[in-house]
Amino acid sequence: MIINIDFDVLNTFDCTYGEFEEEAGKVKVFVKGGLALPYGKLTSVGNKIYFGKCAKENSENVERLFPRYYIYDPSRNAEYVEWGLCDGGLKARTGTGEWTYYEGESSGLYAMHEYVGGCWFVFDEVVFYRRTVDTYTPDRQGSSGERSVQLSGESYFANQLTKDFILEGVLDVFPGPGWMSWMVRAKTFYIEIRQ
Description:
By secondary structure, this protein is mainly beta. The chain has one helix at residues 105-111; strands at residues 2-4, 16-23, 26-33, 40-45, 48-53, 68-73, 78-86, 89-94, 99-102, 113-117, 119-124, 128-136, 143-153, 163-171, 178-186, 188-192.
């Protein structure tokens, strides 16, 4: 499934990225998790699907289309794959089956962040990119001081039809693990969900 979406409405700062593919002017980056979507709904026009932002009450829970949909509590470093309101609070289950109860609905929801993953960011008609990875120490608590930089294409080539897309987040594959900053200059962007 291909979802046409404005890149600027996505919150990508908490993303964890995996492998990437390059082919015939396209760059594809696997998003393992950490992608936050705004409230939205899908619209079909011909054979294309478009994502549009909307108010919460009109939202269609587009997150459920993604292979990975979860909530995360940073204060407990806990990822929950199932959750719901129960007795005035929030009850949530981890992937290992452990249940946690948050007293009061607002306290549980306040601590949570909703994320998706298991999809690909696809940049089409790429003319240039610069990817910088600052490698972590083995315990992932800091930088090792090693930096790798990868360039492709011509940085001076830009026109009214291209746009600069900026990705930042954790890269979990070589040359990582580390913190990645990636600028991609391309004409179009979409999300691909492979079945």
